[in-house]
Amino acid sequence: MKAVLARHGRRLSVPVGANFSTKRMATAASSMTYPRSVKIVEVGPRDGLQNEKMMVSTENKVKLIDLLSDSGLSAIEATSFVSPKWVPQMADNSDVLKNINRKVGVSYPVLTPNIKASSYRATSWRLWWNADFGECVQGFDSAVAAGAQEVAIFGSASEAFSQKNINCSIEESLERFRPVCEKANDLGIRVRGYVSCVLSCPYQGPVEPSAVAAVALKMHEMGCYEVSLGDTIGVGNPASTLAMLQATKQVVPVDRLAVHFHDTYGQALPNILIALQEGVAVVDSSVAGLGGCPYASGASGNVATEDVLYMLHGLGIHTGVDLQKVMAAGEFITSLLGRSSGSKVALAMAPKYTPKSACRHHYSDGSMGGSSSKSKQFSASNVSANGAGTSSARSQITSKDKAILDLKNARDRLKKYQSRLDIEANQLHDSAKRLLQAGKRDRAKLALKLKKYKEQQMQQADEHLIQVLGMLDTVEWETQQLQVFEGLKAGNSILNAIHKVNNVAWLPFLRRVQTQMELCVDGCLDTVP
């Protein structure tokens, strides 16, 4: 028995000094076997960011991945090689993958579409085109060219979801994956499989465990070294999770399975606990609970990596990951996105790890020790007189600066997109020439049609670029006007304060100055859009 436990996991024991109720609960739990160690697959940089409306710059994506690499994580999903039309957040996939600081022992898998079909709507002519010439921009080949050493493919256990998400049946999607797996195997690149909607589907409702097992088996047989089972909309509970895992374990070895839970109903951690009890030792999670599926309405973020680590460490399970460093990465990305973390652990432990700069900002009203009573009183009077306005202005300027940065990033992405479209159009033109020379007129016509489509996309990109440049000019002008306005407003407030403390003889002069300043302020207000 000891040898069996040494190979497969550990049992909980009753701590010394525990009271009766604690002992009773621990005794009940002692029959549950957990893995000795669990591998965390961090999906935040890809699955976490793909559905974010606010565009994150390439530089910040790279920094997020590097922060996560430093935390001890051994697998970090870096990006996705899919069409920017559907997932614009991932348009800089190659740049991200080429610029991260790769650590020895850390894998950086990327999501790839199949080779045969485009990530645009799968019409028959597009299937034919890609079968002959390959995807021009996205997909497996692009991922390999960017340095990918591990790729991931995705399928669904729900027919309805498969049609809505990738516009084909489950069977057809699995057949499309086969060339990816074969080519990856030839190149020595590992392939990970994702099965979505393993518990329920937003379009058809509950999914049968047998359907999940069938898809997982096919992925395993195609060469996926690991198959991750995802509760895409987070409606699963421990009972449905148990049934699904027990069915899947019958056809796929448990050491080849991983779980991927969303926390829509707060059931992610209980479901992970069930998976651990069933022998699963690989868990997908997302820093700060980022994420959600862009094609699954109502799906909230992935289970937070911080929360999973806290639970696993509490169970005495080894992960090799530094919780504090993951929290720092979570704080970095959520501050960029302008919202609080989706991790309950991060929120609860935040005061313990608040950076000194944040503490200084928190006490910037002069209430920290070391200042005299008089200076505190003066600071308080300033706050009561104009503090609210100054704080608001500071917040607005920060927001506008952020908007300017986002618009500049959007401008740069559009320019890259235009350049890429131009290259594709030229490639299609050359292909049409070769096909005509070979006497393949029909295919040449198709190539020219595709070239025309690319040119239409270039025209749309031109229009978007003009809009972005116009918005950028407007925001920069507003920022300059706001800075002038706030400076005059602050000066006016100071004069009001001087009125209260200076000799009455000064009042006529000060009133004249104040009147002139108010006229100036009114003029500035008229110029602010």
UniProtKB/TrEMBL annotation:
Protein EC:
4.1.3.4
Biased-composition ranges, Polar residues, are 385-394
- InterPro entries for the chain: Aldolase_TIM (IPR013785), HMG_CoA_lyase_AS (IPR000138), HMGL (IPR043594), PYR_CT (IPR000891), Snf7_fam (IPR005024)
Q: Where is the Pyruvate carboxyltransferase domain?
A: 38-327
Molecular function terms, GO-annotated: hydroxymethylglutaryl-CoA lyase activity; metal ion binding
Keyword tRNA processing assigned to the entry: answer is no
Family assignment from sequence similarity: Belongs to the HMG-CoA lyase family.
One Pfam family, please name it: Snf7
**Protein name in UniProt:** hydroxymethylglutaryl-CoA lyase
Reaction(s) catalysed by this chain, per the record, are: (3S)-3-hydroxy-3-methylglutaryl-CoA = acetoacetate + acetyl-CoA
Please give the organism. Answer: Phytophthora kernoviae
